[in-house]
Amino acid sequence: MTLAAIVLAAGHATRFGSDKLGAFLEGEPLLFHAIRAARAAPVDRVIVVTRPGLDTGTWTGTPPVDVIRLESTALSESLKAGIAAAAGSDGAFVFLGDMPTVPHEEAARLARLIGSSYAALPRRDGRPGHPVLLSAAAFADIATLTGDEGAGRLLKARDDVAFDECTNPAIHFDVDRPEDLGWLASKGRTEKN
């Protein structure tokens, strides 16, 4: 199975009040933590979809990191651009740039779980989390999304979505405000691989 990872990082983070993805956590920009989690997944390449001007870093080694820059910050446009770049893959993980604590081992569990399912994702206490692994069968449906819509509606409408019942709360934690970074730093909650 050939898989890609997409890191969505094109938003402007209005609740954060400044450049959220460029804000530092443990000595590096928040976005770098998400890229590192995507690179830890069982993928052949990582596609970062971002806005112009955001530092995405320089990544050597494998898997390679490709960057797509969009003027649009709509979630659907970012996801569509990432999926288009992943064409030819059997599936694509979707990581969010503001989720620095996603457990690195979760993607491998999802890859083993997906089988012939439409998608696979972690779930804790009945709530789905990230990353999400979309099969190639989902790619055409992504093209129908509009505005700030992600894949959630599509996933809820399907009965062939596989779930990894997970106990780690990090599958839900996203950074919305500067104090979230302070809390993370004080707890030492990020994973580094």
UniProtKB/TrEMBL annotation:
InterPro entries: MobA-like_NTP_Trfase, Nucleotide-diphossugar_trans. CDD domains: GT_2_like_f (cd04182). Keywords: Magnesium. It holds the Pfam family NTP_transf_3. The keyword Magnesium applies. Residues 5-160 form the MobA-like NTP transferase domain. The keyword Magnesium applies. PANTHER family: MOLYBDENUM COFACTOR CYTIDYLYLTRANSFERASE (PTHR43777). This is Nucleotidyltransferase family protein. The lineage of its organism: Bacteria, Pseudomonadati, Pseudomonadota, Alphaproteobacteria, Sphingomonadales.
